[in-house]
Amino acid sequence: MIKIAVPATSANLGPGFDTLGIALNLYNNFYFEKADEWNFDGFQPDYRNIDNNLVAQSALAAYKYANATPIPLKMSLEENVPNSRGLGSSATCIVAGIKAANYFMGNVLSDDELLEIATEIEGHPDNVAPAIFGNLVSGIKAKKVMKVTYDVCKALKFIVCIPNFRQNTRESRKVLPKTMSYIDVVHNASRLVNIPYALSSGNIELLNILLDDKMHEPYRLPLINDSMKIKQVAKKNSLPFCLSGSGPTLLIIAKNDGIICELEKLKLIPNWRFISLEASCGATITEV
Q1: Average pLDDT over residues 111-125
Q2: Average pLDDT over the chain, rounded to an integer
Q3: How many CA atoms, within 13 angstroms, populate the side-chain half-sphere of residue 178?
Q4: What residue spans of 174-268 are helical by DSSP H?
Q5: CA atoms of 23 and 10, how far apart (whole Å)
Q6: Rounded CA gap, 206 and 254, in Å?
Q7: What is the pLDDT of residue 173?
Q8: Which of 31, 48, 84, 186 has the smallest number of CB atoms closer than 10 Å to its CB?
Q9: Where are the alpha helices (DSSP H) in the chain?
Q10: Are 71 and 63 in contact (CB under 8 A)?
Q11: Is the confidence at residue 170, as pLDDT, over 90?
């Protein structure tokens, strides 16, 4: 049996729309072993069959890419990354499935090939790339999917603000404008290009400027109850703030956990959880 731990991811980081993502040290743990038929444990009832289970479908995609006969797997899930909250829960399933298939095929596929498969399934690389490679990753879709990885300053804390309600990514994309002005494009581009440097150097002051987005956050934040109250706390403390993915989770970057006490004093209803995380390595496989 093997265990695959896949990290949560926070995509976009403000102006890095569908481009940037960072791996965080909160993990979904998947367990796999060869079986005579596909078997699912720990999944919700609707996902206990091969047609609806994203892990199984991703494994099948990897078998097909490698032109290999599918090996049925018995799988179980220990879920820690909340579903449909903007922390890459679907990416954890995709990455776990393709990595499990690759392991049982004898690791015939490279991580770059796994990224290609994962991006084809997910539609964009911003979550799956950091889930595979860890730390901060920029994804590029060209003739093939490419990535550039960056180290993240170990002193940085990523305060994730997680509400007890979900948000559908497809629905949140519907509110986005069809076009942007040149002024807004330049605004985002000038900030996006400097985010890797600011995260690697741990420059909070610079990040506070760079995470200001004009492409998607002005349209998505109003969909999230109390998001502006949390943003105001971050800004009062001069801390970088952004959506995690398409939300509803919000992200604050700091050098310590002190802001959590201030956020908890808001006593928001419905309830929110505030967790301090750090940048993480990518998915890992261990034999158990």
Answers
A1: 95
A2: 95
A3: 0
A4: 182-192, 195-201, 204-210, 217-220, 227-236, 259-264
A5: 7
A6: 12
A7: 83
A8: 186
A9: 54-65, 89-104, 111-122, 128-133, 169-173, 182-192, 195-201, 204-210, 217-220, 227-236, 259-264
A10: yes
A11: no
Q: Does the predicted model carry a pTM greater than 0.90?
A: yes
Residue 139: how many CB atoms within 10 A of its CB?
Answer: 24
Residue 88's pLDDT is: 96
Dist CA 109 CA 92 (whole Å): 18
Please name the amino acid found at residue 143: K
Token pair for residue 195?
């985010």
Contact 245, 10 (CB under 8 A): yes
> What is d(CA 60, CA 25) in angstroms, rounded to the nearest whole number?
27
Task: Please say whether the beta carbons of 137 and 20 come within 8 A.
Answer: yes
Amino acid at 3: K
Percent of the chain with pLDDT over 90: 88
pLDDT at residue 190, as a whole number: 97
